[in-house]
Amino acid sequence: MLFKVQGSYFIKADNIGIHIADCSCFAEAVEFCFMCFHVFDVEYPSDLRVFYAFIEAVLHVQKRVKSTTVLDLLRTLQRSGHDAEAGSSASATE
Fold it and tell me: Are residues 38 and 78 in the same domain?
């Protein structure tokens, strides 16, 4: 679990808050937490599995979570990106 207290970020491990030193923003805290799961080979919390599966897919790291929900989301995003590119190139040729 990741949380913020008085401007500092912490992760919760074994019911102990561990301060993340030199962490200036939420993105860095999420990155640190994500790396901890991989370094210590710990399972993601069940309620965050889809979130971390998405992060795995975006960062192209070894997949630990097989999630059709994330795959469906990524396919939709890729299609919408291709549709937007096709629309902009079609209007540019007109």
Answer: no
